[in-house]
Amino acid sequence: MKTIGLIGGMSWESSKLYYEFLNTKVKDILGDSHSAKCIMVSVDFADIERLTFKGDWKAIGELMKQAAQQLERAGADIILLCTNTIHVVSHYISENVSIPFMHIATTTGESIKKLGVKKIALLGTKFTMEKDFYTKTLINDFGLEILIPDTNDRQVVHDIIYNELVKGQFTNASKQKIIGIIKELQKQGAQGVILGCTELPILISELDITIPTFDTGKIHAYTAIEWSINN
């Protein structure tokens, strides 16, 4: 089994789920008392959040590069960035380490393709929904048609993520707002929805809506375990 390197802390709410997902998947595949071989470097999310809202992506990229290089020095065989939004600077990782980097949009696209879904809704921060670092992978590599909420609804999702979810607050009122936004996208033809913020699946269950949900963090972690065991 190879060692998985994790860049976490964005937020720690989702990072703890990555650890659970990795070990659950190992147990499912290997059984007995097996657990995942992994290393995590966890950053201070307050620093990342401040730089994000300043638009200082270069500084964030440098922090990600440092974390990735720290993981490589510690013996990681592959690197996962345990967040969706910060993949906007994932090239700072892939270009500065000699071990593989597993992109969350790629693992998500593979999962969607397996299910045969063609028209997919994407929810996440405004950065994830509006910038092309995520959608171009889904469109160019997997031929998907992407639907995102309108301007007002994008702001609602963004605010719920930053004001509540990353702080560990999960309210029924926000849950109902997100469900309503998904239903609107479903009316536009969405055959499934990407929960493109790793905290969103804590708020929204697959039982809450009638179309398939794609839990990006779980997909990411499960794919990494399959790689770890098979390489």
Short note summarizing the structure:
The protein is of the alpha/beta class and 231 residues long. It has helices spanning 12-30, 45-54, 57-74, 91-94, 104-115, 126-130, 132-142, 151-163, 172-187, 200-203, 216-230; strands at residues 4-8, 38-42, 78-81, 101-102, 119-123, 145-147, 192-195, 213-215.
Descriptive account of the structure:
The chain is an alpha/beta fold and 231 residues long. The chain has helices at residues 12-30, 45-54, 57-74, 91-94, 104-115, 126-130, 132-142, 151-163, 172-187, 200-203, 216-230, and strands at 4-8, 38-42, 78-81, 101-102, 119-123, 145-147, 192-195, 213-215. The strands form two sheets. Strands 2-1-3-4 form a four-stranded parallel sheet, sandwiched between helices. Strands 6-5-7-8 form a four-stranded parallel sheet, sandwiched between helices. The longest helix is centred in the N-terminal third of the chain and has 19 residues, at 12-30. The radius of gyration is 17 Å and the shape is globular. The N and C termini lie close together (7 Å). The model has no long low-confidence stretch (mean pLDDT 96).
